[in-house]
């Protein structure tokens, strides 16, 4: 095992990784931007290095500055967290070229799965179900219209690069398709540097379910259960739970087996997620994408399996065996993303946090990126903290969640805590029958 690790990220995920590193006796090194100097993760690390200004391009996306910080602190490994450079094959290669341990999948696996069209083709070859769609980039709106007629409406229009639902649009006719195609291509060029577009069949009333996989140092790939991720706004996840209330035992078995095949097809190592779209009526699923990193919602898997995924990432990266023998689930876990945003419009908010009171109690876990007296700026994702709860079953977990959300008190910037409390009162969430259209139904057809 290496003796020190540099965490190339910020906020709650940086603090999360620092916590496990220190528990394992590793030296934890943080990097931070000028805007983040006062955040908890900086103080919690054994050493912290200022790497640049608030703008991500000058700090958390500045590979040269991060690698220089690793050199100055004699770091032996780099953990990228999620977001920023976590799924950059080029950065992973540069880390390895410096003689450092990359705590993540092989660069080739990142590159192969980073292109959604290439990923679709690979998954089809591996026997993983994929939705009807295209097998190469769509060059223009006219071709997109032709392909959509072949596929059948509704269709998803999404960038071939990137992830997390960014730039995705679901359309039901040619006029909306042409508009979405141009908007998505422009967004993809701006955000990802390339405008390649993918079209796939969209399933109305679908659920978004993902499988956590772990590629071991000996080449074995194991599945650690699934997570329900259908509570979304702007195609971004807000609440996740495990196990999924919409997946039968038979479907679960097929999804986990397919996820293992997906990991094996690309020689996967470390933690990753295979995301799927589930048709609850037909109890069928299709591959969406593979996230070649640790997911924001990984705590729900940790809570139901008792497995520290960051510890396993460290062990796999060091070429060591994992520390568990069974991943049998226990009980039910739910994660709520507490965001600095208006609870009605979901527009991000900023400002100093003047009050921060966390809930405490059995089955409650808080992964926080901020604290009282810190400031939320416009430069980063509005995620403040993750409130995670575990119970003996789903009803028990939701009861604990209700009490925890009522006790979570933040003042300063607006937060989505009122929305999360409202969510618990929705019958379709309470009984587990919800799908990806839930938030739109709560906020009306024009909801973002």
TrEMBL record:
Domain ATP-grasp: 120-318
Superkingdom of origin organism: Bacteria
Keyword field: ATP-binding, Biotin, Ligase, Nucleotide-binding
EC number: 6.3.4.14
Domain Biotin carboxylation: 1-444
TM annotation in the entry: none
Example GO molecular function: biotin carboxylase activity
InterPro entries: ATP-grasp, BC-like_N, Biotin_carboxylase_complex, Biotin_carboxylation_dom, Biotin_COase_C, CPAse_ATP-bd, PreATP-grasp_dom_sf, Rudment_hybrid_motif
EC class: ligase
Name this protein carries in UniProt: biotin carboxylase
Origin species: Actinomadura coerulea
Lineage of source species: Bacteria, Bacillati, Actinomycetota, Actinomycetes, Streptosporangiales
């Amino acid at each position: 095992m290496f003796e020190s690790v540099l965490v190339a990220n910020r906020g709650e995920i940086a603090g999360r990784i620092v916590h496990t590193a220190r528990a394992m006796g590793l030296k934890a090194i943080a990097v931070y931007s000028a805007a983040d100097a006062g955040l908890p993760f900086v103080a919690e690390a054994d050493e912290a290095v200022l790497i640049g200004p608030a703008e991500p391009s000058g700090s958390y996306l500045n590979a040269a500055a991060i690698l220089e910080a690793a050199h100055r602190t004699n770091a032996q490994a780099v953990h990228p967290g999620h977001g920023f450079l976590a799924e950059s094959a080029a950065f992973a290669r540069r880390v390895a070229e410096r003689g450092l341990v990359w705590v993540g999948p092989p660069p080739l696996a990142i590159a192969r799965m980073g292109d959604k069209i290439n990923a679709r083709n690979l998954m089809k070859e591996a026997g993983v179900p994929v939705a009807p769609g295209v097998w190469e980039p769509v060059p223009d709106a006219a071709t997109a219209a032709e392909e959509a007629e072949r596929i059948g409406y509704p269709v998803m229009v999404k960038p071939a690069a990137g992830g997390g639902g960014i730039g995705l649009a679901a359309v039901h006719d040619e006029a909306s398709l042409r508009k979405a195609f141009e908007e998505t291509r422009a967004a993809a060029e701006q955000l990802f540097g390339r405008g390649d577009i993918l079209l796939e069949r969209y399933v109305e009333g679908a659920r978004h379910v993902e499988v956590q996989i772990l590629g071991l140092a000996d080449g074995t790939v194991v599945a650690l259960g699934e997570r329900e991720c259908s509570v979304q706004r702007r195609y971004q996840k807000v609440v996740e739970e495990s196990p999924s209330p919409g997946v039968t035992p038979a479907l679960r078995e097929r999804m986990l087996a397919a996820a293992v095949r997906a990991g094996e097809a690309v020689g996967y190592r470390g933690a990753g997620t295979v995301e799927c779209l589930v048709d609850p009526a037909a109890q069928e699923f299709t591959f969406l994408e593979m996230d070649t990193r640790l997911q924001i919602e990984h705590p729900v898997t940790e809570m139901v399996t008792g497995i520290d995924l960051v510890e396993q990432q460290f062990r796999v990266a060091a070429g060591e065996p994992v520390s568990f023998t069974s991943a049998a689930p226990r009980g039910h876990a739910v994660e709520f993303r507490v965001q600095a945003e208006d609870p009605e419009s979901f527009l991000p908010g900023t400002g100093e946090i003047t009050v921060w009171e966390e809930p405490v109690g059995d089955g409650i876990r808080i992964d926080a990126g901020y604290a009282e007296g810190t400031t939320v700026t416009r430069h980063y994702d509005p995620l403040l903290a993750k409130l995670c709860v575990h119970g003996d079953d789903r009803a028990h977990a939701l009861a604990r969640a209700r009490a925890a959300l009522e006790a979570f008190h933040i003042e300063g910037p607006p937060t989505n805590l009122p929305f999360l409390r409202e969510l618990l009162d929705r019958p379709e969430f309470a009984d587990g029958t919800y799908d990806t259209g839930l938030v739109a139904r709560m906020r009306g057809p024009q909801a973002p």
